[in-house]
Design brief:
heterodimer; A: 216 residues; alpha/beta; eight-stranded mixed sheet; 9 strands; 27% helix; B: eight-stranded mixed sheet; 6 helices
Chain lengths: 216, 180
């Protein structure tokens, strides 16, 4: 448990963070496939990482990132970022991996949603969930996600794996949209609670009239 | 030479169609800021380029609507890709023969912009032929979870970001130029 000097209860913020292309293609584990570098977005990335207390990863994302970042500690462009990400505690959700893990990571013990619930009280900063597989879907279903961050990269890719943080719609509330010189746009959302989506054909037809883009 | 701009509504996870997408999209109503943004987009428009399905839906709904946006959309010539039948209602004409080649000729025939609403195989073909100049994507504030992915199957294409515009109701329009 943590509390501020005023006695107010504060807990960590769980953030699902993903790099995507404009058409929703998934991130690749190798950073140079994606990296759009400019001073503003690099500084922003480093600052965001400084606010993170820990990362939560599924097995695939863990294996991908762990194979790349340890080698970049002396890279002139991303070295500072590498130092920070290498040092940060990582929690990995996997049924198949066994410990001990490399890259300052440990396996999540027991049920994932319960473990993350406890982590929220253990930490005060941001808990970054990087990736969009089963771990993210579990946390979404359990209502444990506080924010969604999407970094939209200025590319169209043929497809491959499509981002899928959930199999059902998630209504969102926009917090901020920030464009960088590199062309990357950071879209920041929180989940919007409360409203049920209408599903009658009449309501759907009404929307078709008001919206100006549908499939060909 | 005319510029061809495509405008699409997308969920944050890059979907533009499907049941989940529709359920969520109906909860993001078009308000005056959305209408104003469309009017700005259409300012230099000399026509709309539409696939057959989009034309059918638009032709069934827009003529009965009123207001500045409806007036603008109703008054513009529509160029429709349709192999099966001739369409002339609602100021439309069919893009004769090879629709992609017909759009190439159309672009050369004057100045101004052509706006395409809707995505699918016709969009992919226009992109592959190098005829699409700009892509304006309105990201609606929801994850759809399933549904058609925008421009699935297109070859890897870099884009140049030209604008980030919040248009109200949590929607953000990202506009891009296609880099050739």
């Amino acid at each position: 448990m943590s509390s501020s000097a005023s006695g107010e209860w504060t807990r960590a913020t769980v953030i699902v963070k993903n790099q995507i292309t404009v058409n929703g293609a998934f991130t690749a584990p190798s950073p140079d496939t994606w990296l759009e570098l400019d001073p503003a977005s690099s500084a922003a990335s480093l600052e965001q990482l400084s606010l993170a207390d820990a990362m939560l990863l599924g097995r695939r994302t863990y294996e991908g990132l762990a194979s790349v970042w340890p080698h970049l500690y002396d890279d002139p462009t991303v070295g500072a970022y590498a130092d920070r990400i290498n040092a940060m505690p990582k929690y990995v959700a996997s049924r198949t991996l066994t410990g001990p893990l490399s890259w300052n990571a440990r396996l999540i013990e027991g049920e994932v949603a319960e473990a993350v619930h406890a982590m929220r009280d253990l930490y005060r900063g941001n808990l970054i969930v990087s990736g969009c597989g089963e771990l993210t879907q579990t946390l979404v279903s359990a209502g444990l996600v506080d924010e969604y961050w999407f970094f939209v990269n200025p590319h169209l890719w043929p497809g491959g794996r499509q981002i899928q943080p959930s199999v059902r719609p998630i209504p969102l509330q926009l917090i901020a949209a920030t464009g960088y010189q590199s062309g990357v746009v950071w879209l920041r959302y929180r989940p919007e609670a409360g409203k049920e989506p209408p599903t009658t054909p009449a309501q759907r037809h009404d929307s078709q009239r008001r919206n100006t883009a549908i499939s060909e | 030479m005319m510029r061809l701009i495509e405008y699409d509504h997308l969920s944050v996870d890059g979907r533009y169609d499907g049941d989940g997408w529709w359920q969520a999209q109906v909860r993001v109503p078009a308000d005056q800021t959305h209408v104003d943004h469309q009017l700005e987009l259409l300012e230099d428009a000399v026509g709309l380029v539409l696939g057959r399905d989009t034309y059918d839906t638009f032709a069934a709904t827009w003529p009965a609507m009123t207001g500045d946006l409806a007036d603008r959309i109703n008054s513009l010539p529509k160029y429709v890709a349709s192999r099966s039948r001739n369409v002339t209602a609602w100021k439309a004409q069919v893009l004769r023969g090879d629709a992609v080649a017909a759009v190439a000729d159309l672009k050369k025939s004057g100045e101004g912009t052509l706006v395409k609403y809707g995505n699918g195989p016709f969009s992919r073909a226009l992109m592959a032929a190098g005829l699409l100049d700009e892509l304006h994507l309105s990201f609606s504030p929801f994850v759809a979870g399933a549904g058609q992915a925008l421009l699935a199957g297109i070859r890897t294409t870099p884009l140049s970001l030209t604008g980030v515009t919040q248009i109200g109701n949590g929607s953000v329009v990202l506009s891009y130029e296609l880099i050739r």
